[in-house]
Amino acid sequence: MIAGMGVKVRNGEISKKIELLGQFIMVVGAGFFVTSLFGGIGQALNSAIVDGVVTIIIGIVVAFIVTWIAKKIMDGNATTLDKIIWVLLLVIFVIMILASLFGILAVLGGIMGILAAIASLCYVIVYIFLLITLVSDEVKKEMGI
Q1: 134 and 80, same structural domain?
Q2: Within this chain, do residues 71 and 24 fall inside the same structural domain, yes or no?
Q3: Which of 75, 109, 134 is the last residue of a domain?
Q4: 44 membership: H or E segment, kind and range
Q5: How does pLDDT run across 36-94, given as a tens digit for each residue?
Q6: How does DSSP classify residue 48?
Q7: Which of 20, 52, 93, 117 fits 44 for a cystine, CB–CB 3.0-4.6 Å?
Q8: Which long-range contacts (CB under 8 A, 24 or more apart) does 58-64 make?
């Protein structure tokens, strides 16, 4: 999903920073839904049917909220809610940068630890990029900051 979005950016289909931010958040929402769906199915198949159903329901609700936030960001109207979303995203991106940095430092050893550290490094790069996009003048103007 992220690679598909990257192709759209490269081809110029997504050129505004606010669209890039909104599309990324939309991808996160879709990814959360897919992970929750498969996680819930796995739990249900492992004799935890109620846990599986709850996981799927929570995944659907969270994915819906995240998708709504993405659409709210890209709707072109700067409201008080946009300002609140901007602050929440700022806090979330900073926390995710710190958590990903911790993931780089907390190498468990072996090949899995190395792969986890590489994945964490990639997340650090993504969240730094998103933080820079969020604090850009274009996005701040679009969100009424």
Answers
A1: yes
A2: yes
A3: 75
A4: helix 17-45
A5: 889 889 888 887 888 888 888 998 998 899 889 888 988 888 889 989 989 999 999 99
A6: -
A7: 52
A8: 59/32, 59/33, 59/35, 60/33, 60/36, 62/29, 62/32, 62/33, 62/36, 63/29, 63/30, 63/32, 63/33, 63/36, 64/29
